[in-house]
């Protein structure tokens, strides 16, 4: 069978999204059994209601822009792997948060494709996608309820027990037990009485508790003290064995702790590789020498 025919049969994408296999080079490891966890509609298109154990997400030729956006995302190519902590680094306005929201399927690319273990993401229902992707973002809400509810998003006693077990297992317990009534502490409207560090920990615990296959973290150490930051980075390095973990940050010292780094400048990937790679190391080191350890 010819390569074009084989690829189009594998991905079975919508006619308006037919993949140009002449221009898109895909890693061989993404080709998997696309029939798992799927039902087929009358037109033959599979709709997936669950992820397999996700090992690879490929972003190929992806572009996106809002009307009038100064620096849109242009022809992005990158790979996110299970077992690697991937850092997206760039100045404010470089497109990091836009890319994270795109990966959370809040935005749809104007061009290019996103593949999850070889399956085109258009085959996943939006609810399925959101259940399998954890996204921690500063805009997310802290509810006027207990810490237990803010993590489980449920009042069911079994869920509450699971939250306590989860926090003991992952190490969150040493922070949440410090509250006046431990996990039963009621948080005010939008969590205003929380420090930014504790707010960030609760949001991270909420997303990890649902055991996502893909974990997206926008500025995960924002507002954390040094002790909390060390805890979070150690936790993410443990969690990367179980899921794909992607963080976005302006902090060069945080990027140096990642396994793989993608540098974004004005919506374009300028470098990608390990932090120890010469070009990336020089970029990160130069920025640190300038005095702030951040991309501006």
Explained architecture:
This protein has 296 residues and is of the alpha/beta class. 31% of the residues lie in helices and 22% in strands. The protein has 2 domains: 3-142 and 194-289, 3-Layer(aba) Sandwich (Rossmann fold), CATH 3.40.50.300; 143-189, no CATH class. The strands form 3 sheets. The protein has a 6-stranded mixed beta sheet with strand order 8-9-10-5-11-12, with helices on both faces. It has a 4-stranded antiparallel beta sheet with strand order 4-3-6-7, covered by helices on one side. A two-stranded antiparallel sheet has the order 1-2. Strand 11 and strand 12 (268-273) form a beta hairpin. The longest helix is centred in the middle third of the chain and has 14 residues, at 157-170. The radius of gyration is 20 Å and the shape is globular.
Task: Quickly describe the structure.
This protein has helices spanning 3-11, 96-103, 126-132, 147-152, 157-170, 173-176, 196-209, 226-239, 252-255, 278-289, and strands at 38-40, 46-48, 56-64, 73-81, 85-89, 111-116, 119-120, 133-136, 214-218, 244-249, 260-265, 268-273. It is an alpha/beta fold and 296 residues long. The longest helix is centred in the middle third of the chain and has 14 residues, at 157-170.
């Amino acid at each position: 069978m010819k390569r074009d025919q084989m690829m189009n049969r594998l991905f079975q994408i919508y006619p308006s999204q037919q993949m140009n296999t002449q221009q898109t080079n895909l890693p061989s490891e993404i080709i998997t059994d696309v029939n798992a966890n799927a039902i087929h509609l009358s037109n033959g298109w599979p709709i997936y209601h669950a992820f397999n154990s996700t090992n690879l997400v490929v972003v190929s030729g992806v572009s996106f822009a809002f009307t009038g956006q100064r620096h849109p995302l242009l022809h992005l190519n990158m790979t996110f792997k299970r077992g690697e902590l991937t850092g997206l680094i760039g100045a404010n306005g470089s497109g990091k948060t836009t890319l994270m929201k795109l990966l959370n399927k809040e935005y749809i690319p104007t061009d290019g494709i996103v593949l999850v273990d070889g399956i085109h993401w258009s085959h996943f229902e939006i609810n399925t996608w959101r259940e399998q992707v954890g996204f921690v973002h500063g805009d997310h809400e802290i509810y006027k309820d207990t810490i237990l509810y803010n993590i489980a998003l449920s009042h069911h006693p079994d869920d509450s027990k699971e939250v306590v077990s989860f926090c003991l297992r992952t190490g969150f317990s040493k922070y949440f037990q410090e509250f006046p009534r431990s996990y039963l502490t009621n948080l005010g409207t939008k969590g205003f009485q929380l420090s930014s560090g504790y707010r960030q920990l609760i949001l991270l615990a909420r997303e990890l508790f649902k055991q996502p296959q893909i974990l997206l973290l926008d500025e995960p150490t924002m507002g954390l003290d040094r002790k909390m930051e060390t805890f979070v980075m150690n936790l993410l390095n443990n969690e990367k064995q179980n899921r794909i973990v992607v963080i976005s940050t302006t902090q060069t010292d945080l990027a140096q702790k990642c396994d793989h780094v993608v540098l974004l400048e004005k919506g374009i990937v300028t470098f990608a590789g390990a932090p120890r790679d010469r070009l990336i190391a020089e970029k990160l080191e130069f920025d640190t020498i300038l005095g702030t350890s951040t991309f501006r």
